[in-house]
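Entry 14. Ran structure prediction on the chain below.
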Amino acid sequence: MEVATGVRRIGSRYTNFYLVEDRGGLTLIDAGLPGYWNRLTVELEHMGRRLEDIAAILITHHHPDHTGVAERVRRGSSARVLAHADEAPFVSGSQQAGPPNFFGQLSHALVVRYLAHSILAGATRPVPVASVDTFKDGEVLDVPGRPRVIHMPGHTAGQCALALDSRKVLFSADALVTMDLLTGKPGPALAPDFVNDDSAEALQSLSAIEHLGAAVMLPGHGEPWFGGVGEAVRLARLHAGQAGVAAVDFAASR
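Output, structure tokens:
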């Protein structure tokens, strides 16, 4: 499904990942869950492309619903895998992170459905990536689409968004999603506290994108947002205030 010029959305109602097409090559933005392999290959077939056309896999953060097919793609395509330095040890499997407390949230029906879906799609059996290079904040990557890295810690320490400035597109990953992951209510929001390293820091990190000129925001969870990133940030801050996330002095951060 094309959601912006040269950008395809792949995944499920729960989790998104994306293909960027540029100059004859492809960049995979995140890698879904391990069980999403067929979703990727079907999309490539619809595009008339091959696995070998994928030149790079950019991992926004290390959670298993964003790294799932990365190693399988790397082996099949010789694509480079890149992540922020704070995420790379987890992506490669040299460090381990504990799972979020999903079981403390089972009163929320969406969490139960998402947890069941993720387990069936292999979330409890993540595949480490054998070779991971790193990128840094502000770097424009020499891969198809030439995305610019925006470090937005809080969800995880190395969580990054990726901007296609020439196309006015932002991949916000889990720094800013478009549905409440507890209730399913649509609209820009932070991920809930139980999956964040630091929700107050995640809220503060929104200042890194609030003045971005992107018209389209493509999140890790939820539907594409076509109302501009600045408006998405405004609505996410309102949502965070209603959810009781610690206040941040935004005037001081501007």
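Residues 229-243 form the longest helix (15 residues). Will compare against last week's run tomorrow.
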